Amino acid sequence: MSHPVMRRAVLGGLGSLFAWPYVPRLAHAAGRDPRLLVVILRGGLDGISMLQPVGDPAFAALRGADAGESVRLDNMFALHANMPKLLAMFRESEALALHAAHTPYRGRSHFDGQDVLESGLPRVTTGERTGWLNRALVALPRGGRVAPPKGLAVAPVVPVIMQGPAPVETWQLQQFRYANEDLVARLLDLYEARDPRLAEALRSGAMLDNMMQETPPGQPGTVRVPGRPDFVTEAAAAARIMAQPDGPRVAALGLNGWDTHAAQGTARGGLANRLGALDDALGALRTGLGPVWADTIVAVVTEFGRTARLNGTGGTDHGMATAALLLGGRLKGGRVLADWPGLAPEQLNEGRDLRPTTDLRAVLAGVMVEHLQLPPAAITRVFPDTSAVRPYSGLIRA
Fold this sequence. Notes:
The chain is of the alpha/beta class. It contains eleven helices and 13 strands. It has helices at 47-50, 57-64, 84-91, 110-119, 132-139, 181-194, 196-213, 232-243, 270-289, 360-370, 379-382, and strands at 2-4, 35-42, 51-52, 70-72, 78-80, 95-102, 151-154, 168-171, 250-256, 296-302, 322-328, 335-337, 358-359. Strands 1, 2, 6, 7, 8, 9, 10, 11, 12 and 13 form a ten-stranded mixed β-sheet that branches. A three-stranded antiparallel β-sheet has the order 3-5-4. Helix 6 (181-194) packs antiparallel against helix 7 and helix 8 packs parallel to helix 9 (270-289). The longest helix is centred in the C-terminal third of the chain and has 20 residues, at 270-289. The chain is globular and about 70 Å long. It starts with a strand and ends in a 16-residue tail after the last helix. Mean pLDDT is 85; it is low at 1-30 and 211-220. This is DUF1501 domain-containing protein. InterPro entries: DUF1501. Pfam families: DUF1501 (PF07394).
């Protein structure tokens, strides 16, 4: 079921960048140069708080008193009021939502849920494994992209989703002061005499450091809003790195803190602030990607949703289906796609959760075929055991 949304101007923020220690060379070619950024909301997003099914008669009884203000997208769904930048993207047809979506995982463990989400496998596995985004990087058609293809993980270590044979760089917010030019010059002299490859890495990192420090402070999207988690800094860094002509074309970013067991605060409080912080981050991505936004898709996903009813402490426990987002300049956006299962007691999974009706792998597979231009035959290598899962079509404009 498709729910159209009116168009309107997009608001956004401008991001900033810190150092990325190694920049690969670009294989120059004409034509499209698509990028994909996957944002993982770790902890389990309460999808029916972010994207509220106000048209379902059972929603008011379950959540109405605690839902807070929202803005209608259509006659079924409304977006939490703390997300004006995302709302503007919907109205500009640059955002698309999937509801009642889930991976094949049907348990309630964060660790196992994230393992299935990031590995792309139908079940929890043990031992050595790779991530589906790294496998997609391996399968990218050559020509017009980074050569050799490299990925970016905005994390201190490479997360499961980016683990595998394709090389991946990591970026982490630095808590110390940047070295001055004299120190960098001395180190370069030393490294060039002892280790030319290390010298080249330092030179590349210093170049990006300089670009970061040239960004005027206080530009829109670079300032953290008081009372909200700082998601902007990492999102803006990912955007600026990916926007470089010779930067990575595939990246992953994790945003923590979505496990809302107590005092969830959908109307005002913890979850409302986090949704506002996520909105700030999405705005920073849109602005920081700048001229390459038209060739970028941002997928926002989480390991599972939350229970339909609030618990005794005003929170929600680990659930099943939830909402996911796609953003980007080439989307056929302005819609909420949902085979809505309903929130009446007899419609809930095990009498407590939103029932999954959309396989998240089908959505991501559709993005890879239509946007990254992966051959359809490569999808079963990216997502093994999905021969019966048909990739979504019609997500991307030609």
